[in-house]
């Protein structure tokens, strides 16, 4: 048989010497190591046939070393002999490791006998646990040792279960202990991490700082902890991790404890929060602007009318050609200003989309055809469905694609391609996918991609701001509202718009419109049914009645008018009997003859206790208006109405 | 032929007066519906041009009362949009009896043409 290569691992030099003596006498070639880490180095250089391991050792202890040996494929069949000084105090540890032979440290003569026997078992290839600890006879358990072992076990459990990762390094920066959380963060098996230099486990970004720090410790320089902080965390795989390394002096040398914290979740939440705040800010900004837009566009229209009218008059009466030309120029500017203010007025909350049923793809194709006519840009529409019939304001949606196309033409300097993908998606899933706020529910998605240089990442948050431009300012008058208007229009339709970064360049705009705005054949039918809600307006004043009627009709209601109470009650009764009851009744409280007020409500309720009555008055402080519920009304509307009030009523009651 | 211009904005009235005078009509001005009715009582107008959005929805009221009292009178309503935008008011004005509606800013030539058509062919 070949010479047996034995490794003796014990922190006691005396034991190392005795064992070497015994084993060499038995014809073995013996190597020794003072702790688990040294042992792993020896094993790494040359694989021994048999290892004698002490349990209690610094750095990597016997239990860990045994575990590594048993769980490393190329080492697992090494013959393992445990030489335990605590065999009586912790009977289990000794057996748990899965050693081939266990020997209690005791009197030299007994030990020698068992070591030789173990060697004999190895020679005869008798492997596997015997479940027996040899050499226990004549030994006594020591209470202090038991207590220490118990307390060590408790600390071990805490260390393994804590959420923070904990590692211990020796003075060369090699890992001698790692808890479960840290194992998870490094993403490697424990046996690979133990004895590895930390530099091999850290990302390259961290190495220089760590090596410098370790060198200073080695030289004995006093230095504080090394901290890879929250602001500059380490990237371990997909996780972002902080690492705090502290050196602890131990005699003339030192060891290092490292605490790892996974901050990925916090980072992600923080990022999401920041994005939401940005989005909210944008919404507030646009909200403020829409208020302003309502006022400004009204006043500006008046001013423009006067300027335009006077310029036109002047042109007409002017005899001098040069002045005529000047006025002509002024007129051109007025036309541009008119267009601009018209676009601007779409921001106004008062601007109500005039919805009708539109073939969406046909509309997009038409706009792009026109906008790209004099360029070298081609476009392609991608959609699995033939077309969508959508219920939108065609002029506004047209404006959306005019603006997008015009941006694309500028960005590509007139040469390139545009792709438009249209499909149906779920809003909640999309929110998660793109990480931005998308309306809930079923949506139609339009993805507009150009082949231009794209928008720089840092500008993505700003592109919807009015007058933000990646282009040179002032190149074209009236520019700068393009995407802001797209945003306003999408919002008016209950949709949203987003700019997504594209890795391969180009710019990608994603638009979402709620699917309930979409009417395919089936859908349209349902829509019409919903639209057939009947409203009865009882008011003797045409001036109130007619605009109110128009506004309700705008929301798809069928409106019937009644000029007096008798007519209203008769009408209500006959329609109810005909099976076409009114869904909502608006009752002006100030009708002539003083018969308005609560009496009428009572009369109608007598006919139909389920009638939904809305009190209407210019006097919000009247008793009936303030306590409309007591008088049998479901709601009270103050004159004059705004389109928002009507919309609220339609949404709440129809 | 006499035209009554009702608008609370005096620059607007001046413009409308100039355009109408230039087109060869006699023009009366009023700042609001009430004043307009009074002027019309003294000297009946053949056609009324009225702004829609004046304080308290006076435009619509004026149209209603005028058409009720003088069914033959021609009315042109002009709107620049107000609280709820021209798209809700203009159809209402038409329904109440306005013969023609214009949105600001309008072309004065078109306005003059509309007046001529209403007075001579309407």
TrEMBL record, chain B:
InterPro entries for the chain: Bact_response_regulator, CheY-like_superfamily, Sig_transdc_resp-reg_receiver
Keywords: Phosphoprotein
Residue ranges occupied by any Response regulatory domain in the UniProt entry: 2-119
Residue positions, PTM 4-aspartylphosphate: 51
Pfam families named among the record's database cross-references: Response_reg
GO terms classed as biological process: phosphorelay signal transduction system
Alphabetized SMART domains for the sequence: REC (SM00448)
Protein name in the entry: Response regulator
Organism: Desulfobulbus oligotrophicus
């Amino acid at each position: 048989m070949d010479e047996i290569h034995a490794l003796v691992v014990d922190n006691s030099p005396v034991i190392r010497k005795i064992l070497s003596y015994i084993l060499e006498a038995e014809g073995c070639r013996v190597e020794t190591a003072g702790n688990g880490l040294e042992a792993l180095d020896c094993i790494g250089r040359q694989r021994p046939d048999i290892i004698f391991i002490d349990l209690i050792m610094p750095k990597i202890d016997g239990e860990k070393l045994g575990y590594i040996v048993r769980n490393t494929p190329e080492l697992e069949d090494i013959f393992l002999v445990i030489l335990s000084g605590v065999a009586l105090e912790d009977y289990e540890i000794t057996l748990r490791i899965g050693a081939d032979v266990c020997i209690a440290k005791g009197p030299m003569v007994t030990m020698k006998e068992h070591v030789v026997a173990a060697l004999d078992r190895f020679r005869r290839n008798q492997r596997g646990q015997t479940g027996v600890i040899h050499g226990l006879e004549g030994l006594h358990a020591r209470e202090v040792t038991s207590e220490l072992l118990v307390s060590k076990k408790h600390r071990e459990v805490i260390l393994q279960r804590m959420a923070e990762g904990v590692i211990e390094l020796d003075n060369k920066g090699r890992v001698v202990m790692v808890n479960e959380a840290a194992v998870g963060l490094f993403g490697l098996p424990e046996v690979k991490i133990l004895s590895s230099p930390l530099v091999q486990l850290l990302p390259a970004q961290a190495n220089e700082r760590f090596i410098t720090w370790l060198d200073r410790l080695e030289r004995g320089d006093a230095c504080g902890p090394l901290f890879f902080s929250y602001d500059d965390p380490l990237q371990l795989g997909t996780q972002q991790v902080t690492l705090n390394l502290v050196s602890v002096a131990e005699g003339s040398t030192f060891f290092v404890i490292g605490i790892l914290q996974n901050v990925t979740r916090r980072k992600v939440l923080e990022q999401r929060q920041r994005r939401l705040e940005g989005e909210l800010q944008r919404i507030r900004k646009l909200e403020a602007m829409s208020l302003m837009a309502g006022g400004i566009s009204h006043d500006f229209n008046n001013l423009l009318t006067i300027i335009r009218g006077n310029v036109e008059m002047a042109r007409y009466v002017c005899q001098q050609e040069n002045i005529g030309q000047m006025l002509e120029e002024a007129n051109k500017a007025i036309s541009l200003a008119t267009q601009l203010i018209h676009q601007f007025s779409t921001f106004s909350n008062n601007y109500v989309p005039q919805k009708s049923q539109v073939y969406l793809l046909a509309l997009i194709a038409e706009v792009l055809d026109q906008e790209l006519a004099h360029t070298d840009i081609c476009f392609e529409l991608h959609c699995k469905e033939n077309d969508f019939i959508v219920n939108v304001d065609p002029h506004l949606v047209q404006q959306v694609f005019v603006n997008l196309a015009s941006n694309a033409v500028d960005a590509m300097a007139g040469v390139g391609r545009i792709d438009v993908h249209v499909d149906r998606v779920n809003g909640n899933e999309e929110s998660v996918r793109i990480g931005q706020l998308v309306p809930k529910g079923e949506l139609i998605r339009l993805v507009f991609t150009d082949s231009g240089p794209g928008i720089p990442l840092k500008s993505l948050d700003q592109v919807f701001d009015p007058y933000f431009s990646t282009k040179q300012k002032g190149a074209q008058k009236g520019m700068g509202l393009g995407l802001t208007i797209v945003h306003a229009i999408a919002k008016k339709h209950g949709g949203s718009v987003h700019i997504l970064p594209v890795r391969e360049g180009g710019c990608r705009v994603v638009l979402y419109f709620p699917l309930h705005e979409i009417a395919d054949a089936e859908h349209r039918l349902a829509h019409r049914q919903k639209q057939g809600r009947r409203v009865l307006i009882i008011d003797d004043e045409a001036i109130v009645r007619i605009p109110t009627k128009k506004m309700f009709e705008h929301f798809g209601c069928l409106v019937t008018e009644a000029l007096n109470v008798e007519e209203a009650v008769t009408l209500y009764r006959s329609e109810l009997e005909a099976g076409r009851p009114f869904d909502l009744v608006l009752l002006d409280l100030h009708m002539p003859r003083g018969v308005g007020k609560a009496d009428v409500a009572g009369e109608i309720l007598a006919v139909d206790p389920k009638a939904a009555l809305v009190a209407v008055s210019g006097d919000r402080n009247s008793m009936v208006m303030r306590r409309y519920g007591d008088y049998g009304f479901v709601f009270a509307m103050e004159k004059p109405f705004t389109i928002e009030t009507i919309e609220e009523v339609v949404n709440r009651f129809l | 032929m006499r035209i009554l211009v009702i608008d609370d904005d005096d620059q607007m009235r001046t413009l409308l007066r100039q355009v109408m005078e230039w087109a060869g009509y006699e023009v009366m001005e009023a700042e609001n519906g009430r004043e307009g009715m009074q002027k019309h009582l003294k000297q009946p107008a053949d056609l009324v041009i009225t702004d829609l959005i004046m304080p308290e929805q006076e435009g619509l009221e004026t149209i209603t009362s005028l058409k009720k009292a003088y069914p033959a009178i021609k009315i042109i309503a002009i709107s620049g949009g107000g609280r709820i935008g021209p798209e809700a008011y203009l159809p209402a004005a038409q329904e109440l009896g306005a013969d023609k509606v214009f949105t600001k800013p309008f072309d004065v030539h078109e306005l003059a043409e509309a007046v001529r058509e209403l007075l001579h062919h309407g």
